[in-house]
Each structure stands twice: as C-alpha cells, then as structure tokens.
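Build the 3D complex.
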Amino acid sequence: MREFIEEKIREIRETVGSKKAIIALSGGVDSSTAAILAHKAIGDKLYAVFVNTGLLRKGEPEFVVKTFKEDFGLNLIYVDAQKRFFDALRGIVDPEQKRKVIGKVFIDLFEEVAKDIGAEFLIQGTIAPDWIESKGGIKSHHNVGGLPERLNLKIIEPLRDLYKDEVRELAKELGLPEKIYRRMPFPGPGLAARVVGEVTPEKVRIVREANAIVEEEIEKAQLKPWQAFAVLLGVKTVGVQGDIRAYKETIALRVVESLDGMTANAMNVPFEVLQRIAFRIVSEIPEVGRVLYDVTNKPPATIEFE
Amino acid sequence: MILVLENYGQYTHRIWRTLREIGAKAEIIANTTTIEEIKAKKPSGIIFSGGPTLERAGNCWKILERYEEFGIPILGICLGHQLIAKHFGGVVDRGNKAEYSLVEVEIIEENEIFKGLPKRLRVWASHMDEVKKLPEGFELLARSEFCEVEAMRHKSLPIYGIQFHPEVAHTEKGKEIYRNFVSICKS
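Done.
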C-alpha cells in the first residue's frame, strides 16, 4: 500500500509537472481518495471542484467543504447548482436519460469552472467496476465523459485498477476521516437514482430524509452492510392512519452485503430493525405511507434501482 | 503469465484480481487480439471470460481451432465454458430456468481443478444459456439442481469449463479453484 501511494504520487507529479490539474470532488470515497493523493503530489496546483447538485445526502455539502477546505487545506471551489439540475430534470422519467441529463449539466458546469482555472489535466476517481459496467453497457457512469476532448484535458485515473475495498484501505492509509473511508457507495446521479420516475425537489427531499433514517438506524444496530438506502418508488398505496384513509408514497429499503459491488446479497437484517426503520419513516415523513424491503440479490437485480 | 480473454463479461476484471491476489501474473487482453500476438506473449495458460453472447467471443474460437499450436491449459468461465462445449461439438441452448446468484453445486469428479474442495459448494452463477449436451471426449465434473453441466473437462487435454463464477467474492472457495488452475498451468 505504501509503495502504491508513493508510486502514484510520483506518477501524478511527473505527469502534471508545473501545470494545473482539476478534480471533480463528490465527497465519496473514490474522488476523495484521488483528490488527497493528487493533493499530496502537486499541492496547490490541484483545484478541487465540488458541485452541490441538490441530489446529495443529508448534510453532505457542509461536510465536504469542512473536511477538504478546512481540514485538508485543498483549493476547493464550491458551486451551488441545485436549480440548474432540477430544471434540467423536469419531465424526465427514463433512468438512462436521467443519467445523461445529469452528466451533461455536470459537464457544462465543470467546463465553465475548468476554463477559468486553465487546467491541463483532469484527475478522476474512476475505479475498476466503473469502467467495467460502462463498457458492458449495463449502466452509463457519471464521471465527466466527453469533457476531456472538448477542453483538451488529459485524464489521470490513479485508482483505475482498484476495487472499492482497496480504495477504502488506501483512504485510511492517507489519513482521510473514517466517515469517508467507511462511507457507503453513492451513485454518481445521487438521489436522482433513488427516485423512480421524474425527479422533483419535493421527491428528493422525501428520499433524502428517508435515507438519513435508514443510515442512522443501520448504524445504531451496528450492522455493517455494503450499502443501505431508501428508494422512492413513485407508487401510491392506501393506508389507514388514525381512522382516516390515507393514500401516500411508498419507500423501498435496500440493504446489501458485498465485497466489491460486483455481486451482492440482500442482507438478513433483523426484523426489529426493519420495523423500526419503517415506523420512523412513516411517522417522520408525512408523505410516506408504506415501506417495503427488497430481498433480491445482484445478480439478477443491480444494487441501485436505476 | 496467464492471459484472460475479454468477452465483455461483468466479472472479467474479477478474474484478473483473483489471480493477482493469489500471486499469479495475469493480463486481460481483447478477444480480437490476433493468434500471433497471443502466441508472442508466451502465456502459460488462457482463460476465456464470461460475456453476453457467443457471437462476440472473437478469437477464442481460433485459439481452440489452433489448439495444438498452444498446447497450454485453458479454462472457460460461463460463456467461455459454453464456447468450449460448442467448439467440441456439444449443445448450448437456453436453460429451462435461469440461474442467478446463489446456487449449490455438487462436485461429481474432484479432478485437479476442484482439488481439495468439499463435495458440495455454494457458488454464484449468472446465466440463461447452458451446456445442454456434453461434447464428445469430455467428462462431467459438477452439476446443480438447475443446470446439468456446471463444470467439465477434456479427457486428455488440459481444457476446462466452469459455468458458475469462481472469481466473484460470493463464491465459496472460488480462489482455490483459480489456485488449482494456476498449479495446472505450472505443471
């Protein structure tokens, strides 16, 4: 691991030289690790761009700014683009189309920032399963496809041959906080991938709250799944609440165990924990009336719903 | 060095990773690589990865056609297993039931590829097509409740086919299977 770090630092330093490099920092373990690795290699010549898409987890934007700007001292550029993303997503239902739209808005934004900085290199936290799945045509991935050609940016992908568990070890070794290297994987399109059908600020708010409850309760129960999250199915079902008929949203819970995300099993979460999560979601989020648990493995399902 | 021929499967890179973890040198190459280029790499063994369709198995077919020029051990995984069966005259078709994720496999014939493994193995599979009829000159090594030919080998040549995925983390003792293949390549 030490050798790997030194080798990559040397590679990045030699490649970038006296030029500038940018990275799109999401706060996830991959881009965070790539950013810290690059920061160690080239210091202030690295510009980390953090885009608040409006599709992030609860408390995430604040956490990323604090960690990377204040604690690690990175050159961090914060872009608030929530409105732009929601405007672009209006009326879009197809999952692949959603990913494309989000990717495009992201690239446009990133291009504007990158031009101002005048960087020649783009550092990406791409890991092995990203390019494997894209290549197989299962899902398109959210990195910055198309942009490098337009801006004439040369790509550096220091984590390309690693799997998530290896990146976590690396992150720990690099001194990143536990909250990052233990953090569950989160899809590039963010909470948009957790809302089946059209994405609106309202739906994202619901799924964000539900997701925070799931993460809290899983942690409280001391379970260590690969991922645990909530999905807003966009299906309304009937309930009875205080003797009154209810007709409300349905949330699906997904908790899976995996080593690397390539294969995964639905976790045998204790029933009491599932019930506590269901109870809290329905009582704390008035728009939700029912909670379901997904018991499908990967394959045949994927971990995420979209 | 073991060459892994990429048939556009989800787990190709996992094969590479597993080999790396057990200390074997390995390289993933496109299945469009020419026979001459493949020979020039002087592989000690070849693995055909899984993938979506036999039509895109590229030069894997040619390696089998010109096998005597190589003479080295070959292991086919999933689609790779099916293409070996088809090449040698077996029948590959849609299975009665698809197998996804956990499958219990019964090892009928231990052989060098399953050496030291228990008789029953909990493995992960992901396929719709399967080998319906074993090709002539092959023997059956393993089967499951849903799929008759989970593994096979050529009776005289070091050519092996496995329908499930020993390279994924969820397969019990998967690494041992690759370790056995690496030993076969060394001997």
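Chain A touches chain B through 19 residues (CB under 8 Å).
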